[in-house]
């Protein structure tokens, strides 16, 4: 993997300058921006999304929790969600519950550990049983979406 340090060494500038160029900071000259961007492209630099997320506190990740992806309805729903997420600059993390309440809570917790910014859930059917994980999501202010199959893909 090409690092900012590698680009900085080849360009003869500081790592901070490379970082500012890649963020399009206004205090870097146009000539330096052109040279550093060309080097970054030539060297195959790919931004590190997790590192950027530490700076911006935004992961651009959404969680999707489905019973099972083999169901054709859920497959189409997942496809529609992915298209919309992609259009808005988000990526999806997918998890399956297999209709097990204990697995549902575990996969939601794993998604939370990935610092998702929103969550689409088709809940596990329950008969009068409470689901504390949903109270916890509300307390954490996680955006929870209801999926709809109306959109055609």
Account of the 3D structure:
- 49% of the residues lie in helices and 12% in strands.
- By secondary structure, it is α/β, with parallel strands linked by helices.
- The chain folds into 2 domains: 4-47, Orthogonal Bundle (434 Repressor (Amino-terminal Domain)), CATH 1.10.260.40; 57-145, Rossmann fold, CATH 3.40.50.2300.
- A 4-stranded parallel sheet has the order 2-1-3-4, sandwiched between helices.
- Helix 7 (132-139) links the parallel strand 3 (118-121) and strand 4.
- The protein is elongated, with a radius of gyration of 21 Å.
- The model is unreliable at 146-153 (pLDDT under 50).
- Taking strands numbered 1, 2, ... along the chain, how are they ordered across the largest sheet? 2-1-3-4
Output the structural class. Answer: alpha/beta
Find the CATH superfamily of the largest domain: Response regulator
- What number is the mean pLDDT? 86
The CATH architecture classification of the largest domain is 3-Layer(aba) Sandwich
E-strand count: 4
Any idea how many domains? 2
Task: Please provide the ordered H/E string of secondary-structure elements.
Answer: HHHHEHEHEHE
Q: How does the major sheet shape up? A: 4 strands, parallel
Q: Which stretches are low in confidence, meaning pLDDT under 50 for 5 or more residues running? A: 146-153
Distance between the termini: 35 Å
Cα radius of gyration in angstroms? 21 Å
Note the beta-strand portion: 5-15%
CATH third-level topology of the largest domain: Rossmann fold
User: How many helices?
Assistant: 7
Helix content: 40-55%
Q: Which CATH top level class of the largest domain fits?
A: Alpha Beta
Categorize the overall geometry. elongated
């Amino acid at each position: 993997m090409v690092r900012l340090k590698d680009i900085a060494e080849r360009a003869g500038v500081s790592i901070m300058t490379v970082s500012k160029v890649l963020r399009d900071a206004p205090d870097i000259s146009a000539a330096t921006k052109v040279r550093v961007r060309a080097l970054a492209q030539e060297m195959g630099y790919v931004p590190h999304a997790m590192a950027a997320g530490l700076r911006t506190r935004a992961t651009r990740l959404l969680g999707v929790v489905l019973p099972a992806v083999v169901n054709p309805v859920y497959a189409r729903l997942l496809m529609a969600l992915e298209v919309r997420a992609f259009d808005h600059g988000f990526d999806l993390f997918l998890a399956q519950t297999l209709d097990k309440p204990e697995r549902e809570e575990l996969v939601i917790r794993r998604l939370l550990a990935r610092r998702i910014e929103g969550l689409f859930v088709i809940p596990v059917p329950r008969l009068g049983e409470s689901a504390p994980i949903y109270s916890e999501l509300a307390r954490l202010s996680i955006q929870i979406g209801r999926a709809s199959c109306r959109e055609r893909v």
